[in-house]
């Protein structure tokens, strides 16, 4: 299928990295992609990019509520995500492990996107923008900080931004938790 109907993940990653860089969005510098095919189609593909020496990834902010400068990092990450949205970039894998963070002088942070093969380049309305935060597994405290920052940039009230970000985030978390319960074979118990 990938050889004849759809671009390989490696080729998509390479092309998307170049599109991101054209929009001044950081990602490890794309070097090349390799596709190994035979008459039946794609066998393997590889995407090659420059190594980024990062300080931590977004997961640290979830698992360590007392992480140094956490609020400032979340605010700057929200500004970074806003820039994605303003450039009509819907990063479908906007999840905790796919953003590498580099600490800069003066409490500034650079954010690098990785695992790039799932993106859409489309206009993003308010609902789609808030939906894009859902995979980050945010706590209510994180949502409060991020929604306040995003609301100022997008000119919405912090209340409506918070409510919609929370709605999409909780719906995603509930879906994932339900899948885990089904896989484990346990039944959900509800209090009467």
From TrEMBL:
Top-level taxon of the source organism: Bacteria
Alphabetical list of InterPro entries matching this protein: Kinase-like_dom_sf
Database matches in Pfam families: Kdo
Record protein name field: Lipopolysaccharide kinase
The organism of origin for this protein: Xanthomarina gelatinilytica
């Amino acid at each position: 299928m990938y050889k004849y109907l759809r671009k390989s993940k490696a080729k998509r990653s390479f092309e998307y990295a170049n599109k991101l860089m054209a929009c001044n969005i950081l990602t490890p510098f794309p070097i090349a992609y390799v596709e190994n095919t035979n008459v039946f189609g794609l066998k393997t593909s590889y995407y090659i990019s420059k190594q980024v020496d990062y300080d931590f990834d977004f997961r640290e902010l979830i698992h360590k509520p007392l992480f140094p400068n956490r609020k400032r990092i979340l605010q700057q990450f929200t500004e970074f995500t806003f820039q994605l949205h303003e450039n009509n970039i819907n990063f479908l894998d906007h999840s905790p492990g796919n953003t590498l963070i580099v600490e800069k002088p003066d409490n500034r942070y650079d954010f690098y996107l990785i695992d790039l093969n799932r993106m859409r380049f489309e206009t993003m309305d308010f609902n789609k923008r808030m939906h894009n935060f859902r995979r980050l597994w945010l706590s209510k405290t994180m949502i409060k900080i991020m929604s306040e920052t995003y609301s100022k940039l997008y000119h919405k009230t912090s209340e409506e931004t918070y409510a919609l970000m929370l709605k999409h985030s909780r719906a995603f978390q509930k879906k994932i938790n339900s899948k885990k319960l089904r896989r484990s074979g346990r039944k959900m118990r509800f209090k009467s």
